[in-house]
Amino acid sequence: MSKVVVYDIIKQMILDGKLLAQEIKNNVKESAKRLKKKPLLACIIIEGNSASEIYVKSKQKACEECGLSSKVVRLPKNTTQKKLEKEIENLNNDKDVTAILLQLPLPSHLNSVSAINKISPEKDVDCLTYKNLGKVFVGEYDIAPCTATGIIRLLEKYNIELEGKRAVVVGRSLLVGRSVATLLEKKNATVTLCHSKTKNLKEITKEAEILVVAIGKKQYIKSDFIKKSAVVVDVGINRENGKIYGDVDFEKASEKCQYISPVPGGVGPLTVACLMENTFKLALKNNKN
Amino acid sequence: MSKVVVYDIIKQMILDGKLLAQEIKNNVKESAKRLKKKPLLACIIIEGNSASEIYVKSKQKACEECGLSSKVVRLPKNTTQKKLEKEIENLNNDKDVTAILLQLPLPSHLNSVSAINKISPEKDVDCLTYKNLGKVFVGEYDIAPCTATGIIRLLEKYNIELEGKRAVVVGRSLLVGRSVATLLEKKNATVTLCHSKTKNLKEITKEAEILVVAIGKKQYIKSDFIKKSAVVVDVGINRENGKIYGDVDFEKASEKCQYISPVPGGVGPLTVACLMENTFKLALKNNKN
Fold first, then answer.
1. Inter-chain contact B137–A134, Cβ cutoff 8 Å?
2. Handedness of CA A171, A177, A178, A183 (dihedral sign)
């Protein structure tokens, strides 16, 4: 095959998150115009984590793109739990604030679960409070965690059937693995959740018709972990020497699977796009615009 | 083999829920003696469901056994959502009430999710409010749904290792399947949740080292669904001509597996025992006795 043919084949199987993210943001922009009041996303950042700074900036930029307001509450690296929770309380009580996002991870001296659960569930845009996660668990939710939502949206965009399919999720973080496993189950997939204590991981991933990987280990999932014609979603963002790598060995894996999400340009942009959508949904729900 | 030998072998592999339930109740009884105030479990029952009447009676009886107080709030079959939620509100505000249990299922004109979420999370003894389920989901819980808790206790009683084991749960009800799948994951099992939309169920259950079945179909799981030397927990209670059957074909299955819970005498008694324990735990937590 010529290089052009190979390129065309690979192009056809790419789950293009960048494209979908733009679509979602365009929709939010159009829909937000019709609201009486501009929704406002407040991000809390604890200083001293450069990745967090990048993420918060990209969230602000996306707000601008979508015609939403944003503000950033900055707290020093050595801030106390009490001060952090006081800031959250202030944002809960501020009628101008639609949505509150606490940028994770927090420094180790702070308790993130406690802080998250100080956010009013009505403003919990990342859907990480107990109450909102419980709603996801029960299947009665308006919003779900952003990355997990983005993954489902990406699969749906490409008309990938989920009902009755065997899905395997590798990684059980609250933000991604555990949440997307639950959402896949709500779509009637048969889901297996794998994690660091899983034995014979390869045997299990090889059964997956849908494989979602979110472990944060550069190119850990090789071609021999993947069932032929599987759909592979790579959530990993591993930075090395200024380059970004996924959790999946893209080059080899793409020879085997039917669809695959690239890194970058796959799930990454969808997290922010779904955050915009969640902000809009909270505005719609709470202000009854 | 003589009948006696066969009987002895079967006896060795039985997960005896009755025995463990008695142990749990005895512990609650001993521990409750030390509380300043007797915990009170309030059960709400909507009249007209004979199975519910039996369950509520057995809960009252268990309270007596454990030295706990109980009361029953009876509402007529045609009660309204508003009246039901008003009763829940009254029990929330009643300082004498430690724990509130809404006996399920409700008649079809009532919304059980809405009613359950009117129960104060501090008194939600069945752990079914969004907030409490969210805590289970996150892994930060004091109590978990009773039947799911009972299953884990039963496995632990027999020193069955869960970490790294492949567990398959069949049935995704909130009360049992979905909850026990989450608890097994917290114990570091690799869990697959199967349900009515699962294809090739048999292929999946045959991979299970731990198999939990809660589908409410008499003897649906035959011997050929089961991996050799698996541990099988049967949560089914199917009544037919005055006899009770599990979801597993016990006789054939017991020839193949390492351990199996019988019906009756397996998980059934543990639900009530764990309800007693949860009532005690709520008393301890909320009254700081």
1. yes
2. negative
CATH number of A145-268: 3.40.50.720
Global pTM? 0.95
Locate CATH 3.40.50.720 in chain A: 145-268
pLDDT in 10s for each residue of chain A, 289 residues: 566 666 666 667 999 999 999 999 999 999 999 999 999 999 999 999 998 999 999 999 999 999 999 999 999 999 999 999 999 999 999 999 999 999 999 999 999 999 999 999 999 999 999 999 999 999 999 999 999 999 999 999 999 999 999 999 999 999 999 999 999 999 999 999 999 999 999 999 999 999 999 999 999 999 999 999 999 999 999 999 999 999 999 999 998 999 999 999 999 999 999 999 999 999 999 876 4
Q: Where in chain B is the domain with CATH 3.40.50.10860?
A: 35-134
Q: Write down the CATH superfamily of domain B35-134.
A: Leucine Dehydrogenase, chain A, domain 1 (3.40.50.10860)
ipTM: 0.94
Query: Are the C-beta atoms of A229 and A165 separated by less than 8 Å?
Result: no
Across A109-173, where does the E strand assignment appear?
A: 166-170
Show which residues on chain A lie within 8 Å of chain B, measured between beta carbons. Answer: 113, 129-138, 140, 163-164, 166, 172, 174, 178, 182, 185, 188, 190-195, 197-199, 204
**B143/A264 Cα distance (integer angstroms):** 41
Ramachandran class of A241: left when φ > 0, alpha when ψ lies in -120 to 50, beta otherwise? left
